[in-house]
Every structure is written in C-alpha cells, then in structure tokens.
User: Fold these one by one.
Assistant:
Number 1:
Amino acid sequence: MATIHSTALVDPAAQLHDSVTVGPYTIIGPNVVIGAGSTVGSHCTLEGYTTLGENNHVHSYTSLGAAPQDKKYAGEPTRLVIGKGNTIREFCTFNAGTVNGGGVTRVGDDNLFMAYVHLAHDCQIGSHTIFANNSQLAGHVVVGDWVILGGFTVVRQFLRLGAHSFTAMCTLLFADLPPFVTCQGQPASARTVNAEGLRRRGYSPERITAVRAMHKALYRENLTFEAAKERIVQIGKDKPEVLADVEMMLGFLAEVNPKVGIVRSRRRSVD
C-alpha cells in the first residue's frame, strides 16, 4: 500500500502504486494514476485525468492536471500525461489539454522543471529537458528533446523549440527556435549553436562542424529561407555521416508557419 500522510486527501478511486509516497496536506483526485517509485510532496494538488509514470518526484505546492486556462474549455475529460524520471520542483503548474488541441498535455522522461514553471494546455514536452525557474509556456507549445530554457523564459502560444536548442535568461520567444540554436533577448534573436551541450551529449567534432554549417546557412550567409534549406540539403549530401542531424533540421524547417517564421539574427534577417 502507498505511504500516504495522515493529513493528505487521496480519493479511493485514485490509482497509486504501492511504492508511492504522498506528503502532508496533498490532494489527489479520483482519476489520477501514479507509477512506481514516485513521490509527491506536501501541499500538492493532482486532479483531473492525470497520469504520472515511474520515479517522478513532485515537490511541494505543485498543481498538476488543473483545468486549462482557456475560455473555450467546457469541462471535457482532457488529460495531463507525464512520463518517468521527471523532477518537478516547487510551485509548478501543468494544465490539462483541450479538445481543440488534441486533448492531452504531454511530458516525456527525465526532465527537470525548476520552481514556478508553467506548462499551459496542450504543450508537448520531449525528454531530457531543463526548464529553469519561472519558465512560462503558453498553450500548444512543442519542445524537443534536450532543450534548455533559461530562467524567466517566456514562449508564445503555438511555437516550437527544436531539439538541443537553448534560451538565455529572460528570453521572449515569438517565433520558432530551430534545433541546435541558442537565442537571447526580448524578442529573442539567434546567437550561435549549442556546441557545449552537443559535446556533453557525445557529438563528434565532425557533427558539430556540420551543425555550425547549418547555422551559418540560416543566419550568416544572407540567404533566403528556401536557399538556406537547399544549402542544408547539400551539407547532408557532402557528409553522409551527419545526415540524421540534417534531416532533423530540415524536418523542423519544413513545418515552420510562414506567418510566424523562425527566430531571427541581429546580424542577418532570414526571409
């Protein structure tokens, strides 16, 4: 049987693995599922159709699965689904999805969410990300694997952040951030590639050189958006060993909304 503090209120219909620990004054609703090895701190609220996988650690005063902050929401049974091995620090708020957004707010595995992070309805978060304190995502934002958000980063609704991208502290994002790109500012502007992060993840010098070449095509050669994509295609042809990275970049760029575009560089604009 799960270890539940005497002051916690856990609905009998909630499904908690026997190894789960629940702290004082926490409230867990009837449609919540919590996997093996997970801990929930004090004064938390887990409600709605919320599922946590194994080995998640939820710290005090966190709110998971509350109704989306969307005026169109009419009480539908939408969900929050969280993978395994995540750390969710104090005062985080993750809202459930909406019918129009697919019905699910989803979080992957092995992420670190520092204090006061907000995930609005229908956000889709990958794995191995780090959200520093007070990072705030509006609805329908998609965040790839290994992304790092600096403290107080704010992301507008319906944007995408590509894998291995990075934002500096207090960044405001109003456009898509391509894979591997670092950005800073209000509004954000592209800076360089996340080379240090790639080295830590085992990228070879050859792969990092190719990533730099893709960044150069997008931001340093004064090419149109379409011409930059053609240049990136050629990088993959010239260096087949980096084709996976090239394909990831091209796949991301292919889905850019022309009305939104990608984060620009202060040195060069990309049409």
Number 2:
Amino acid sequence: MKNDIEKIVELALSEDIGQGDVSSGLIDDKIVEAEIICRDDAVICGVEFFNLCFLSLDPKIEIHWNVEDGSRVKSGDKICRLKGNTRTIVTAERAALNFLQILSATATQTNYIVSLINSTNAKLLDTRKTIPGLRKAQKYAVKCGGGVNHRMGLYDCIMLKENHILSIGSLEQLIKNAINQFPKTPIIVEVESLKELRSALLMKGIKRILCDNFSLKDLREAVKISEGICPLEASGGISEINIMDYARTGVDYISIGSITKDIKSIDLSLRFCS
C-alpha cells in the first residue's frame, strides 16, 4: 500500500500547491512547533498519509504522535506534535488534515456501527461506494474501525448480479464460466428472492450469497434454509437505525455503503505553539 499512499499524497499536494503557495511566501521562514488537536470523539486513521504530506516537502520535519491508527481519542485531545519550517507546515497543513479527517471519519463511523451489532455474530462489511482515488485508504480505515473488507474492486472477486445472469440466461452456466476462467477467484452471487436463493444454494463453487433488499421475515427464512450450506450477506435498506434487527436474523455479514460515502469529517485543527 506504500506506493499507493505516495501516489495519492503526491496528487493531493500537487492539486493544492500548483505552481507554488503564494500565501506561505509572505510569512517568516523559521523553525516552529505545532500541535494537532482533535475536536471530536474519534477513532484515528491516516497517520502515514498525514506524515507523508509534510515529509514530502521537507524530510527534516519532526512528527511525534501520541496515538496510532485505530486509537480512540476524546474531544480536546492533542494527538500529534510537529517541529519544522513554518512555510512547509502551513503549505502541507490542509492536505494532511484532509486525509486525517476523512479516514478518521470512516474509521469512527465504522466503529460506531460495529458497536451496535457486537452482541451478534454478524460482521460489518464495506462496499465499493468509496471516495474516488481513496478506495484502498478507506478500506484500511474500515479495518481500523473494526469492520471487514468486502472485495477491493472488480478484479479480486467475482460478484454475479441480475444483469450478469440475464446476459447469459443461466446462473449455472455463469458460475461454470467463472470457475473455468478464474478458478482461484472467489464467487459471490446476489439474489433478490427466496426462490433465487434456493436455486443458488444448489450450485457449487459459491463463496457467499448476498441477499439484496430482503425483508426481515425473508432474511430469517433465508438463514434457516442456508444454514451449513453457504454464508449469507444482507445488503440494501440497512442503516444504523435497523441494523440490529438484521443482525439478529443470524445472517453472517451485513454490508453498508454509508460507512465510506456518508461520513462527516472529524474536526481537527493545527495550531502553532506559543
């Protein structure tokens, strides 16, 4: 992931700095200390992204953390201290805080949802509904928050949905094609009814079945008929309000897109020390 972080940070700095930071050129060029203060209760994530934003501009900057990725902090906590060139700190500040705020928000939201279903056996999955360019970063943040990663992209898992099946005309044939062409790639099949679920349970080679927009009643029945045959994932129409109801059905996994796309950035501030 290191190379990915370097590419993402380089892009973030490039789009912000452009041909040069005209504002920082107006201030004194001296060595100062600064600290990062968290204004929300949060689960921190994005330390490496934050560090690289500063170190890319000045390898001599000193960064000392009081926490690490996955740490829980309270509002008012001082989580990091920096020492370095004034202009460099001011120039890298926004990009560094953006990463830390967004990834900490993802980890925090994930951790909250996970806490709601901790008393059940259901595991929380993320989705591909991520901020463009931050797929791996947000997936990492989900893990820091206690969630489990779904497929990373279209390349590491075969997921067969209604349109895939309609294009071939047969789920059985589609699975055969998948196994023949990608024998080591896991297969997930999405179903929209108990009838489709029963058909999928007859197929061999399926890693998991996704029950899309099932009612609680149908999902309970789905759990009963699939027990010991194939793990089930529930998705669609699930939020923090009703997730416990779905978890209590006995389903193995619950996937929610909101933990990566409907997030509120964690409030962080950088202040020079007097």
Number 3:
Amino acid sequence: MSRLAIIGGSGFSSMPAMRVARTQVWSTPYGPTSGPLGFGRLADMDLVFLPRHGTGHSIPPHKVNYRANIWALKQAGVQRVIGLAAVGGIREDMAPGTLAIPHQIIDYTHGRAQTFFDGDPSPGHERERGGAGSPLAPVAGLDFDATAVTHIYFTDPYCEALRHALLQAAVGLDTPVVPNGTYAAMAGPRLETAMEVRRLERDGCDMVGMTGMPEAALARELNLCYACCAFVVNWAAGKGESASLVAEIQVNLQHGMEEVQRLLRRFAARV
C-alpha cells in the first residue's frame, strides 16, 4: 500500500482523527518545511501529515516553502498527496459548506519558487546537493537532475486515480460534493475584489484559493500522485455578501474540518 500524505490548509493545522506515532522536524536543501511531519495511521492506512501554514497557522500563503514541503514528503516515502484547501465559491453550486474535488487549476500567483528544475542549487547547499550542476539524487534518493531544462506534462494537473478514490469515498456523505471544477490560485493573503472574481469567472474558474500552486506542479515534478480536496468556506467577492465575513469563514472552517475528516476516514477505510 502506498504511503499517503495530507497537507493541511487553513483550518486544518492538525488531524485529530489521526493516531500520531511520532513527529519529525525535516530539513531539506530548500530550507525547513512549514512544520514537523507527523507520522501515524488513519484507520489502517499509513499517513504523514504536514500543516501547510505551520503550527498555529503562522505562515501566509505567499511565504509557504512549497518546495521544501513537497521535497520532504517525497523523501519520507510518500507516493500520494491530498492537499486540503479552504476556498471561496464562484460557481452557483459552490456554496459555503460544499466539498469540491477540482480537476483543473489556473495559476495567478507571482513571485513563488515554481519548480525544482531551476538550474541553480540554493546558495549554501551546493555541497549537500552534490555541487552546482550535479544531480540531487544522491541526497534525496530521487532520480533527476534539477539543473536540466525539464518540461513536465501538466495538461491534467491532478492525479485522476486519487480524485476518483476521493469521490468514491464521498458517496453517501451528507455534505454536498462537487466532483469537478477549476481552482483559481491567487497570491493572497488578502481576499479578492469583486472585479477580480468577475475576471476569474470569465476565465472559467469555479473556486478561488491561495495555495493550489505551485504545490500541484511541484508534486508532479517529483512524480507524486496529487489531488486537492477543497472546502468552500465563503462566497467569493461579489457572489454573496455577509455582514460578518470573517466570522462566517471561521464557523465554516470548523464545520469543514469535521466534514473533511469524515471523508478521509471513509477514504482510509476503502484503501
């Protein structure tokens, strides 16, 4: 059975349903991960948990060390990754309280390290990474050369087998589940303007979040089967107004954490 990792997003900085056996601080050639990796079991499934925003949600989306996180999971023997995300709903069926398993993504972020294939090892890490121009494989047990110009296949950004498994596990849940959608990855940390959301809608986006990229692309570069499990916590700007948006988001995050864990327990029981 392949090892699964859960990357927890906003509202998901821990996994109470997981039986944690140990935690480990993990260093990588790209710097530290967002937090310690938790190793344990969910039902009878081996699981690694990593809080994307750190313990206590202290790291904003544009400051997350996505490369370190994905690299560490690969080194830890993970083959499949589910990225949890809190999103705003754009499409009519993406109301708050909905679970969505997106099938596409559009990247609107900027200034983030987008690839492992950057052709230049990080300063200070040349020795442990094998020297400038050398493959990184001796350090990480990975068989690729990060200095080579490499174009990954990304037509379908999410792992269809993992998406299908999540959707199968969601059958019978009380929570509405949307089996597809295009995720708009924004820079954050601010929320969007109404006109920005209108642009996203014209572009074909159905939900909006801040952490979908470069996480999905980095996972593909390391040949990890990656899928996103998104929970809609609010209507995107201009799609529905609330007198107390922040309070609404917090309430929906708590509900979302419970529903996502219910889904993941069902997923683990089916594997």
